[in-house]
Amino acid sequence: MPDPTDCDADDLQESFTPQSAPRGLLFMYILHRLGTKPSHGYEILCDIETKTGGAWRPRPGAIYPMLKKMVAAGYIECQDAGGETDQKVYSLTPRGRMLLEKTKEKIRASGQRMDSLKGIFLEMMGEREALGFLMDALKGHFEMIRAACSLQSGVQPRLEVQYRLREYSLLLEKELRWVNSTLSQLETGNDQSD
Questions:
Q1: Which CATH entry fits the domain spanning 12-98: 1.10.10.10, 3.40.190.290, 3.40.1390.10, 3.30.450.20?
Q2: How far apart are CA 30 and CA 68, in angstroms?
Q3: pLDDT tens track for 154-174
Q4: Domain boundaries, the chain
Q5: Is the pLDDT assigned to residue 89 strictly greater than 90?
Q6: pLDDT score, position 87
Q7: Which residue has better confidence, 35 or 15?
Q8: Which side of the chain, N or C, has fewer Cβ within a 10 Å radius?
Q9: CA dist 184 → 134, 172, 176, 178 (Å)
């Protein structure tokens, strides 16, 4: 078992730079993206940069070797786009589709694991910084929920979206009652945490 004290501070810092992403995310995103439509490498790079607002910009030196490995492993296939360029169009194979489904399960499980670690992250951040961080994260969650409900693909059944929105509404109402109660206590000076 590796000794955690052997970690190089530069290695740790590199893993948290704005231009990087968790290990394996590029592989998983390529699978996902090619599962929606065939694309060439540059399209995938642009898509990632656009969807992350520039926070994650994989370099061509990361994506093209990854595409090559995925072709060699049989997860994707490659065809010449035709025309005057050397562009190649990549698409998912049946083997890649099976892996994509397994990957989705891993993503759901990792979300649950991250949720169980929230107390540790809050403690490491400190109370003052955590509240601002969480408010920003909450805004991001609101945007994700809106985007998930407005998917134009038609894959989601209308009744499922309605059910989820009703569930979301109940959660928001519950949180709003708590917020209003806490604000009232703070405004009247009944807060015990001063």
A1: 1.10.10.10
A2: 12
A3: 667 778 888 888 999 999 999
A4: 12-98
A5: yes
A6: 82
A7: 35
A8: N
A9: 21, 18, 12, 10
